[in-house]
Amino acid sequence: MNPNPVEPSGTRPRLSPRGSVLLALTALATLVGTIYREHLLGRSLFIGNFDRLSSFLNTLQFQADGWKAGSWAAWDDSMFMGRNTFALPFTYPNVLNRFVAALPPQDLYWAAGYISIGLAVLAGWSAFLFLQDVVADRFAAFVGAVLYQFSALAVLKVSQNDMSFAVLIIIPLLLWLVRGLSPSRWVWRFVGICLTLLWLLFFCFLQKAAYALLLLGAYTLFLSLHRRSWQPLAVVTAAGVVAAIGAFPRIYGIVQELGQLQRKISPKFNMQDFAAVYKWQNHHAVDVLRWFSDGLFGRYYGEMMSLKNIINITEGMLLFTGTLVPFLVLAGLVRWRAQWFGLFRPAHREFLFFYAVIAVAMGVLVSQQVYGFFFYLFLRMDFTHSRIIIAALPLICAVAAAQLALIRPAENISAGQKVSLGLLALLTAGTLQWLLAGLLARPGTGAWMLGPTWKNWGSVLEAGVKSLFGHAAAPPAISPEKTLVYLWPGAVQEVLASALVIVVLLGCAWLLRRRAGFQWWAYVTLGALLVFGSWRFANLQVNGPQVHTDRPFADNNSYQAKPGEFTPPTPVEVARLHARLENDEYRSVSYRSTETLPLFTAPHVGAMWRLRQVEGYSSGVPWRLARLPWTDDVLGLRTLTYGGYGEPSDLPWKLLSFLNVKYAIRASPALYKNTPGRGQTDVIDSLEIQASPEPVVPRVFFARAVRVVPDADAAVAATWRQTAAGEISFIDPVAESVLESSAPPPVLTSEGKITAVFAGDTINVEVTPASASRLLVLNELYHPDWQATAGGQSLAVLPANVVMRAVVVPAGIGHLTFTFTPFCRTRNVLLFGAGSLGFAVIFLFALRALLPGAGSRPEPAG
């Protein structure tokens, strides 16, 4: 292979390297635009997966509101009686939030969609940068980058969480920076690695970041050993220390916050029991077959459920990026660079390392023992470790790109020949794709057969043309016995046909390797097939019929909303709903009576309408809140929801009233999408709202008496009781509150009035001064990062009634201030940022002194 061919004399000058790079980057961006065309053209709103609306987008809205207010607030009381948004593992306030905040509030979700699309483009560009360095072939690198940005993992993550998807941008960039380290050119790469790692650790989803760091560490160690130089290891280690210091406030803050959360399926389920967790997470070795076809077990969640498959489609094998790719990768094990088993020769050790990482990622899916290794490595955290495929994805694309580059002719041909043969190759690729996806399909059923009959060739032709741009939709439901009839034969046949295409193209390219024109045709044909197969899969996931439904997230599929839906309410609309629900004084919950909405409606509704709720959907449920007597259908692994309740009379009003809940809202599509339904002109007036039949505990009050207990277990026993008949009764915390303290109970009075102003991270409380101390209780979630001051002195904030926070107000005090001070606040961020910068300078000078004689191989491995 000649990576830098020179045109023979007498031909037109070829495209310059800079021009071809620019063309590739433009093409990558254009292809992304064609996938998300509906959003870019304003024809539909890209909402993505329900995780995005219930988790990422509501956090984005909260942070954008903070930017607009001129300050970042960490405490969000729209769910779980309050939560610390500075300690969310999946995101942290960043400049992208600032961009969203600069646009009109009504454009929040549109702006978020543009940013997600932009990040998808950056992932392709980052992959191209790394792959071009590895394979030294710009067209092959372009094809590999397309495979990367349109993989099942990438398409899913861009529809869920921007800062989870951003790890896909960071990984190829880090690999490229480390691969290019050399004794003569390392300073700016050291700076680049520092900044990239700092972004990864401070802003991205930390679980994905951990897998990225494992890959980076293994690759760095490999390069140091392969080059017989400790330079890569020294530079990356120094950069890692710099980044870890700078990101320490966020990392430590998350570690602290995990101690305040519970992640349990049920009280009886031991999340530390690996065998039980592995079984619950529903892993199957057969899931690895999804790498070969998107149709083996169902192409999206709704189809998977229709086929009665139990494979976890969102957390399982997400490496699919076209049926041809696995066969390219497997072919490399047999024949590599014109050598039988050449991959195992010393000159190709870098790609052997790539294969080793891919094997480990596959092993997590196939082997319970390999999965268990990562379970214990991550300190028994119940993460779904099959997500480690995020580390294998760029390497699979690198192998596929390298295999494609091998077909490129070593001989030079004229530019005119390249254009003519390239057009012929595109026509060939289109025909082959049409044959694979169209002629094998039985029109109107989605089932497959060997070929068309003479009676239905017209319908087959039409189906084939349509199949170039999508897939047939799954029927509403299929009985298990018809699964094989519907998808498996077609998927298996497509896999076999793809294997045949690879064998024929690679075999002919080798047999006719002395014919440059034929090799160029095969080279472009295979590249076009790879691009089109990957694009076609992404197009189905983003634009298929399953995302254009009247019901949002029908069958747990992604959703494309109609223009006008999900427009954030205006401040006037928010104020009207708040007045109707007395939002400043009481909380609310939502329930549903139909199947027109997804199960988790409260997280989005609460954030969009700025409501105070007990319900939530986040990294976990606050463990104090989880200690209350919730039923199993309400309390989940990381959720509290009443989405499965049909009538307000079903709600546990005694428990809810204890938590300051006065109103229950019947969740409706109008409220959920902020779009009036048929025959309605106003969303707020059309709502069905039920008031609590029980006395509601106030938001702020003085307790008339106090009972002191040593810990939370004793507080639980003293706060509520359950009779033999299953009836639950709570204490009246206004009459007597249960206080967790080591001090004896104080002598109290409950005289005086209270006026409290809640403003995010700050609460100002005015009380009538009294001659004796008083126990002030806030029916807000207790969190150790809340601090209180009064009269120039700090007051201890104590847990009361299991979930509430309280403070003993000294005699004579008339004003108190509560302040939420998470570890990852501005002061600590600036302090550790300065330390990070200082260490970067120290390491820079130290490495300058040590590295001149460090390496004997300055060139990259490969």
Can you describe this structure?
The chain has 862 residues and is of the alpha+beta class. Helices cover 47% and strands 11% of the residues. It has 29 helices and 26 strands. The strands form ten sheets. A five-stranded antiparallel beta sheet has the order 19-20-26-22-23, with no helix packed on it. A hairpin with a 5-residue loop joins strand 16 (720-722) and strand 17. Helix 8 runs parallel beside helix 10 (206-227), helix 10 (206-227) runs antiparallel to helix 11 and helix 11 (231-258) runs antiparallel to helix 29 (826-850). It is globular. The chain starts with 16 loop residues before the first helix and ends in a 12-residue tail after the last helix. Residues 1-13, 439-455 and 854-862 have low confidence and may be disordered.
